[in-house]
Amino acid sequence: MYKYIKGILEEINIDYIVVECSGIGYKINTSQNTICDIKKGEEVKVYTKLVVREDDMSIYGFKTKEELKMYELLNSVSKIGPKVALGILSFAEPKKLGAYILSEDVSALSKAPGVGKKTAERLVLELKDKIDKNNVEFEPTLLTNINKVPLKTEEAVQALVALGYSLAESKEAVNKCKKNCFETEELIKKCLAYLMK
Q: What residue spans carry the region label Domain III (predicted)?
């Protein structure tokens, strides 16, 4: 119903904000990420989702389209309601959440409020194929292959050496190209393209 609401930020609370637009104050449930990125008294544009239930109508909104999209994905998972989805988004930014899901990091996801091990596993199972692989931010500890197969950087170096490149050249290429690579074969191809420049 509402694509976004643009107006003056009148109130900031723990888990919601109030935005005044054309004399109406909209109570918008939101994440800590959004709350930390806006200031009271300023004009804000909040991308929104109206959630209608039998006994309640609530607006959920976020500073970026990416955060709204991640909220909708989280909310689509069975047994994860709007409040839990909001708690997960307050726990980590969308790019980090995407990385946790892609790398099947159940341990990290379990630390989000309202999420236990089984819920974290369900998140991975239901969302792994829906996450945009080009819009995630991996931490160094998460640079592993999807499906929990480690990215074998040493194998890539050995393969490049076998193709006639020096050890130093091979290591440099692997270090430059390993970011966002999930498979050893993919890494080798990127390294070859890098070395042929």
A: 153-197
CATH of the domain at 188: 1.10.8
> Helical H runs in 77-151?
82-91, 94-102, 106-109, 117-127
Nearest to 125 by CA among 185, 69, 77: 77
Choose between 167 and 43: higher pLDDT.
Answer: 43
Cα–Cα distance measured from residue 159 to residue 93, given in angstroms and rounded to the nearest whole number = 36
Q: What is the CATH number of the domain that holds 40?
A: 2.40.50.140
Which whole-number Å values give the CA distances from 122 to 3, 24, 105, 119, 192, in the listed order? 29, 39, 12, 5, 38
Kindly report the pTM of this predicted structure. Answer: 0.67
- Neighbouring residues of 159: CB distance < 8 A, sequence distance ≥ 6: 188
For residue 124, which amino acid is it?
Answer: V
Q: Token match 């689509």: residue?
A: 76
